[in-house]
């Protein structure tokens, strides 16, 4: 019986286009000014140091760090320091009303239904926990943060590694067989399956590489009473 549901964001609850044509360019356009203006801020300074650490180069200037971050943005590298900085920049955008968090209606409706049924709902995304909370707080359907019991980002590990799902499992008080993980990426589902979770692939369009797991076109097709190990 499924009691805990963990969902990915990009390509699962929300469109890939929103992340790649709204969020990423918004942060890319502002990251240089943001780092120059806030380099002394504790949170920002921590991420600047994390970039240097990741590049194993303590001699990097601020311009070097910015160039590295822009390269990571352009290549969609899921580097935790970049993800934290993007979240800080997006906060401004959401608060100013420059954009709202995109969510498919079917995802909104099913997450609301599962919450009302007492399911424990979680998010696992490469975006920072702060960025995840912002997307759901400022969603097109209003503030949805109350739907979720918790959020996981790459501080538990990368999404294509089974160990990350084992780490998540340790913080959930339930057997792995009671957990369902939803994602559009087959490698993430492979990893979650190895950790003992049930998995379902969201195949919303032709761009998705279909794996060997059960799949649905959208959340309206998910019937958790029919999912069992
Ligand atoms: C938290 S919204 C921004 C998502 C993001 O930055 C990203 O890299 C997408 O990662 P996901 O694991 O949701 O595919
Ligand atoms: Mg995804």
Structural class: alpha/beta
Query: Strand tally, please?
Result: 6
* Low-pLDDT residue intervals, each spanning 5 or more residues: none
Largest beta-sheet characterization: 6 strands, parallel
CATH architecture of the largest domain: 3-Layer(aba) Sandwich
Question: What is the fold named in CATH at topology level of the largest domain?
Answer: Rossmann fold
Q: Tell me the fraction of residues in β-strands, as a range.
A: 5-15%
Average pLDDT for all residues:
97
What molecules are bound to this protein? Answer: the ligand CSCCC(=O)C(=O)COP(=O)(O)O, magnesium ion
Number of domains in the coordinates? 2
Radius of gyration: 18 Å
What is the overall silhouette? globular
Q: Indicate the percent of residues in helices.
A: 40-55%
CATH class of the largest domain: Alpha Beta
CATH superfamily of the largest domain: HAD superfamily/HAD-like
Q: How is the topology of this model organized?
A:
Layout: E1 4-7, H1 16-38, H2 42-54, H3 62-74, H4 80-96, H5 105-116, E2 120-124, H6 129-137, E3 150-152, H7 162-171, E4 179-183, H8 186-194, E5 198-202, E6 215-216
Parallel strand pairs: 1-2, 1-4, 2-3, 4-5, 5-6
Helix pairs in contact: 1-3, 1-4, 2-4, 4-6, 7-8
This protein binds ligand L4RZE5RM and magnesium ion.
């Amino acid at each position: 019986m499924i009691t805990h549901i963990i969902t990915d964001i990009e390509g699962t609850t929300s469109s890939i286009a929103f992340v790649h044509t709204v969020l990423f360019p918004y942060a890319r356009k502002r990251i240089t000014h943001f780092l120059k203006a806030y380099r002394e801020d504790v949170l920002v300074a921590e991420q600047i140091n994390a970039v240097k650490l990741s590049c194993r180069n303590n001699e990097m200037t601020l311009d070097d760090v910015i160039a590295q971050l822009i390269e990571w943005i352009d290549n969609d590298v899921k580097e935790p320091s970049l993800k934290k900085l993007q979240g800080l920049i997006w906060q401004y955008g959401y608060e100013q009303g420059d954009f709202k968090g995109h969510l498919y209606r079917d995802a909104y409706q099913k997450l609301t239904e599962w919450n009302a049924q007492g399911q424990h709902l979680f998010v696992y995304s490469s975006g920072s926990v702060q960025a995840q909370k912002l997307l759901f707080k400022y969603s097109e359907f209003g503030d949805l943060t109350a739907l979720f019991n918790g959020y996981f980002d790459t501080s538990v590990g990368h999404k294509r590694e089974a160990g990350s799902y084992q780490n998540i499992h340790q913080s959930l008080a339930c057997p792995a067989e009671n957990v369902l993980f939803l994602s559009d990426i087959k490698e993430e589902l492979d990893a979650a399956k190895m950790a003992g979770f049930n998995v379902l692939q969201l195949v919303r369009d032709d761009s998705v590489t279909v794996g060997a797991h059960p799949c649905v076109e959208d959340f309206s097709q998910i019937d958790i009473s029919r999912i069992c190990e």
